[in-house]
Amino acid sequence: MYCINCWNPNTKVIDSRASDDGKTIRRRRECENCRNRFTTFEKMEIMTLVVEKSWKRIEKYNREKLEDSILKAVNKRNMSVWIINDIIRKLEFKWGSKWEVTSKQVWKDVLEVLAHVDEVAYIRYASVHLNFESAKDFAEFIQKNLEK
User: Fold this and answer.
1) Which of 13, 25, 87, 90 has its CA 20 to 30 A from that of 109?
2) 40 phi/psi in degrees, rounded to 5
């Protein structure tokens, strides 16, 4: 790790701690040249995950696409960005053990989480991914999934 002050490549780790979620490591470092101290964070990154779309088309997992779709579902629902990021982190951790996940599995997993977080966002998300075309579709979905 290069020093952010003098760009010396020789730095030593003074302290390491895992974050609350257990997926990030905070390291306190010191430059062996100028003695500058700085903090770095290491986090788990999903690099090899691909999403199998319809017609067996494959594309690289894109966190921003997932975040945008959830943001649309929770629009004007007063949901914190922290909650959304936590949802995505948990889903990425779930998928992290796989090389490939289907788009159908992605939206099913998102639906499962949203069902516990916000019912309106759950219905909005389902309406897009299950192609609701009428009020009847909404009513049937609500009756089948929320009135248990």
Assistant:
1) 25
2) -120, 155
Q: Which two tokens stand for residue 115?
A: 């069902």
Q: Compute the half-sphere exposure of residue 14: CA atoms within 13 Å on the CB side of its CA.
A: 12
DSSP 127: H
Question: Which DSSP letter does residue 134 get?
Answer: S
CA distances from 68 to 5, 138, 142 (A): 36, 22, 24
Separation between Cα atoms, residue 82 and residue 88, nearest integer Å: 10
Which has the closest alpha carbon to 39: 75, 9, 3?
Answer: 3
What does the alpha-carbon distance between residue 88 and residue 59 come to, in Å, rounded to a whole number? 18
Q: Specify whether the CB–CB gap between 68 and 84 falls below 8 A.
A: no
Separation between Cα atoms, residue 7 and residue 125, nearest integer Å: 47
Give the tokens for residue 95.
């998928």
Higher pLDDT, 19 or 49: 49
The reported pLDDT for the residue numbered 113 is 93
The amino acid occupying position 25 is I
Is the pLDDT at 14 greater than 90? The verdict is yes
The pLDDT value given to residue 111: 93
